[in-house]
From TrEMBL:
Domain of life: Bacteria
InterPro entries: Puta_zinc/iron-chelating_dom (IPR005358)
Protein name from the UniProt record: YkgJ family cysteine cluster protein
Pfam family, one: CxxCxxCC
Length: 161
């Protein structure tokens, strides 16, 4: 007879949970590769690109990226200044740096320092892989969504509970 790793059938991991866990592992690999591709580059780390309302630009996340942020870091309240809710109070540092989305790892403003050319091919390959990972767990989600949209929706769901 085959041995089981759990006693109660109710506690057996569901197929969807296994798929989500796998997606998060793959996401970490993608993030590591993005960091490697950008290792020769740096920036002044001013936090200005995290001022989302001011820049009118925000990271767009596939489902596993949002899942990682929300599950590990919860839902901070929206900020009055419209900046990313995961920015620290002083508006300088990302409080979720190790888990920051792909877009935050690969976006640099004109003050980027490093080689003359950014690794566009590597970013493109990794983005396609990220899309495939997301599609496996959320096939109906055909595109990434802005960070603030994920955040507002999750807050609203939480308030209704
Ligand atoms: S997740 Fe971090 S790096 Fe990305 S916008 Fe928010 S504070 Fe900035």
């Amino acid at each position: 007879m085959q041995e089981r790793d759990w006693d109660d059938e109710d506690e057996a991991p569901q197929a969807s949970e296994i798929a989500e866990a796998r997606a998060l592992r793959e996401l970490r690999v993608i993030y590591q590769r993005a960091d490697t591709a950008y290792a020769p580059f740096s920036c002044p780390a001013s936090g200005e690109c995290c001022q989302l309302a001011r820049t009118q630009r925000q990271p767009w996340l596939w489902h596993p990226e949002w899942q990682l942020l929300a599950s590990r870091h919860g839902l901070p309240p929206p900020r009055d200044d419209g900046a990313c809710p995961y920015l620290d109070g002083a508006g300088k540092r990302c409080t979720v740096y190790a888990d920051r989305p792909f877009g935050c790892r690969t976006f640099f403003c004109e003050r980027i320092r490093g080689p003359a050319r950014q690794p566009a091919e590597a970013v493109d390959t990794l983005l396609r892989r990220l899309e495939a990972v997301s599609q496996r767990v959320r096939p109906h989600l055909k595109s990434p969504r802005p960070l603030l949209e994920w955040h507002a929706e999750a807050l609203s769901l939480e308030e209704r509970r």
